[in-house]
Design brief:
Length: about 250
């Protein structure tokens, strides 16, 4: 069942989204060569608590971190630890927070002194794929129009799309219906309605689409160990188009 949010709920989702975006932006700016992924996580934890929020991830199915920090071939769910970020790395940050009963969920991928043009293009095109998906998230469209638009950008750019992990509805719960694959034909699935709140999150790989899960039970890596990028926004479908909730006021 897809939960339709009323105006009061959307207002709280806006607050949660704004906090999520602010934390994600500050953490992104704090990454430098030599920092450990645990230090990144601890900084995120301090920002989340200063904002009067809670991590949506900590303790979720036993997840031990406050955020996910996924480096290079790590796709998603990278566990914060002793690993040090190096020049040439890409670092995906996935931040979920709970504020006043509602969730915000967003991800971004940061390049740390990356010179390789192909890697920079992976990041740019993954963000483009997310934006293309969001543009389709309008009342009256079908859910898989979003999926299809994402896949089209990814394939057009020569990158592959992870199939095992998908976007999702979001609200009082981090994962609500529907699931939102990042691939597939258009014109399928539920009709989108105003008040639907969705987390759209393409994961694009430089090499093959396949993934493995490490022994830690969490970290998802590409099967060929080539780089992977992840961008995510929480949005609400309005009467005149999508509104990105995890965006800083400008
Ligand atoms: N953004 C991810 C998702 O939507 C975060 C889940 S990480 C977990 O699934 F640790 F909470 F599982
Ligand atoms: Co998500």
């Amino acid at each position: 069942m897809i939960v339709i949010k009323d105006e009061a709920a959307v207002k709280r989702m806006r607050t949660a989204g704004r906090v999520t975006a602010a934390v994600c932006a500050k953490v992104s700016q704090s990454i430098y060569p030599g920092v450990t992924t645990r230090e990144i996580d601890e900084y995120a934890a301090s920002l989340i608590s200063e904002a009067g929020a809670r991590s949506a991830f900590l303790g979720y199915r036993g997840y031990p971190g406050n955020i996910c920090v996924s480096v290079n071939d790590e796709v998603v769910h990278g566990l914060p630890g002793a690993r040090r970020v190096q020049v040439g790395d890409i670092v995906s940050l996935d931040v979920g927070v709970l504020v006043d009963g509602y969730m915000g969920d967003m991800a971004t991928t940061v390049a740390v002194g990356v010179k390789d043009a192909g890697v920079l293009r992976l990041l740019a095109q993954t963000e483009q794929a997310l934006q293309a998906g969001i543009r389709q998230a309008c009342a009256g469209a079908r859910l898989s129009d979003v999926s299809h638009a994402i896949e089209k950008v990814a394939r057009g750019a020569g990158f592959s799309v992870v199939r095992e992990f998908v976007g999702h509805g979001i609200g009082r719960e981090m994962h609500e219906d529907p699931q939102i694959p990042n691939f597939g034909p258009p014109g399928r699935g539920p009709v989108l309605r105003p008040g639907m709140t969705l987390a759209i999150e393409p994961m694009l790989n430089m090499g093959r689409a396949g993934v493995d899960i490490l022994e830690d039970g969490w970290t998802v890596v590409t099967c060929d160990h080539k780089y992977s990028a992840h961008f995510e926004h929480t949005i609400v479908i309005g009467t005149d188009g999508p509104e990105i909730l995890t965006r800083l006021d400008d």
